[in-house]
Design goal:
about 40% helix, globular, about 300 residues, 10-stranded mixed beta sheet
């Protein structure tokens, strides 16, 4: 009888704990709207600077708190699958196989494309050659000898830049010889700024909007113009070249929202894709999906204010 009473007591406690947890989760969800509440967003580390800018402006306008968690692309996608994240920002869309996983969970991800980014190739300032052929980079990745390249430096072996270049080279993993990886884009920039002959591969936003402590390292690297595979012309990762489709290493950026309800994920995505968010993109040097309009006042005459 005592054992039965003890078991009943523990069952009762377990029910209470589950009830409180469910109520707490429901309360948190109920307190969140598209413009109010708090949420965590996982972001591909190569895109962190521009998303930090967007979050700062969003939080200044609304009663919202967004916690950004910067991870490699692989870790960010896995966080969605393991349900540690409901919102992710990536430099690619979900694949057909990935969408099937969400379909099995009865979840339809809301995908918002909001900008076009570029992968930049950088070298030390001592390197006088400011042009690099994409074919040389691919050849080097494939183990071929390229005299102009001493080594390639990536941010993270699981990053979107590694996946992108691997895809171009027809590889599943980065080579063990002559290819190096750190943890962040800042580490790549710093290493290239201090080592001649190394080619760094980073998100262009890390060069256009560096942290104050990184400015001296950014000033000591060249952003290389890239010669595409089917042209003799080379182009820098400028906003204009990205817009005209001339730069060969451009990629679209996406907000993947798997919340399943009208929460901050929906509000933030709408904001980033809206007029203010697109102006932040334009100012950053990336290409917005839509160019914000400008109001121009035309006067018939100029009044002389001098007395």
């Amino acid at each position: 009888m005592k054992n039965y009473a003890k078991i009943s007591y523990f069952v009762f406690l377990a029910v209470i704990v589950v009830f409180l947890a469910c109520n707490q989760s429901k309360s948190s969800k109920d307190n969140e709207t598209i413009l109010k509440g708090s949420v965590s967003i996982f972001v591909d580390e190569t895109l962190t600077p521009i998303i930090e800018d967007q979050v700062a402006v969003f939080e200044s306008k609304y009663d919202a708190k967004i916690k950004l968690i910067s991870k490699s692309e692989s870790e960010t996608v896995n966080s969605l699958f393991k349900e540690r994240a409901a919102i992710a920002i990536l430099a690619r869309n979900l694949t057909t196989e990935e969408l099937k996983i969400f379909d099995q969970r009865k979840i339809i991800p809301k995908v918002t494309i909001f900008a076009t980014d570029a992968i930049a190739l950088i070298s030390n300032k001592n390197n006088k050659d400011t042009i690099i052929a994409l074919k040389d980079v691919i050849d080097y990745m494939q183990g071929k000898s390229v005299p102009s390249i001493k080594g390639l430096v990536f941010d993270n072996p699981n990053s979107s830049t590694v996946r992108y270049i691997n895809s171009l080279a027809g590889l599943n993993a980065i080579p063990e010889k002559g290819v190096f990886s750190f943890k962040t884009n800042d580490e790549v920039i710093k290493y290239v700024s201090e080592n001649d002959g190394m080619i760094g591969i980073v998100g262009v936003n890390w060069l256009s909007q560096p942290m104050p402590a990184m400015q001296k390292y950014v000033d000591n690297v060249n952003t290389l113009s890239v010669k595409g595979l089917n042209t003799d012309n080379s182009f820098s990762p400028s906003q204009n070249n990205i817009a005209e489709g001339k730069y060969p290493l451009a990629r679209d950026l996406y907000i993947i929202n798997c919340q399943g309800y009208s929460g901050l994920g929906m509000g933030f995505a709408s904001f980033v894709a809206g007029d203010i968010g697109q102006r932040v993109i334009l100012k950053s040097g990336l290409l917005p999906v839509r160019i914000p309009g400008r109001n121009i006042t035309i006067r018939n005459k100029i009044e002389n204010d001098k007395k």
